[in-house]
Amino acid sequence: MNKDEILEKARKESIDEGYDNAINKGYSAGLKISGVVFFILLILKYKNNITYTDIAALEFGFCAGIWFNEYKFLKTKYALFNFIMCVLATIGCLYLYITKYILG
């Protein structure tokens, strides 16, 4: 395949690597920012003796979504394992939060 054939194929498939790169950088920044906010809230709640399972459930749920997408596209056992662990952690945190504050 020569250069012109590759470019023509890319045009037909509507591949925009710049757009994909911008989206990926946005997701990466969002993950970092949510991680920082998570740890700040975790520390504040811990210092005030307030349960933090609600925040942990959100963060683990977010991470589960990331690992699911990685598994969907890459099909690695590592991604599948991390997805399962994040889902279990999310369920566990939600269970603890619901039993303490909702069913209390």
Helical residues, percent:
over 70%
- Whole-number mean pLDDT: 85
Largest beta-sheet characterization? none
Order of helices and strands: HHHH
Low-confidence stretches: none
Give the termini distance in whole angstroms: 66 Å
SS strand fraction: under 5%
Summarize this entry quickly.
The chain is mainly alpha-helical and 104 residues long. It contains four helices and no strands.
What does this structure look like?
There is one protein chain. The chain has helices at residues 3-13, 17-47, 53-74, 77-102. Helix 3 packs antiparallel against helix 4. It has one domain. The protein has four helices and no strands. The radius of gyration is 20 Å and the shape is elongated.
Tag the structure with descriptive keywords.
87% helix, single chain, mainly alpha, elongated, 104 residues
List the helices and strands and how they pair.
Layout: H1 3-13, H2 17-47, H3 53-74, H4 77-102
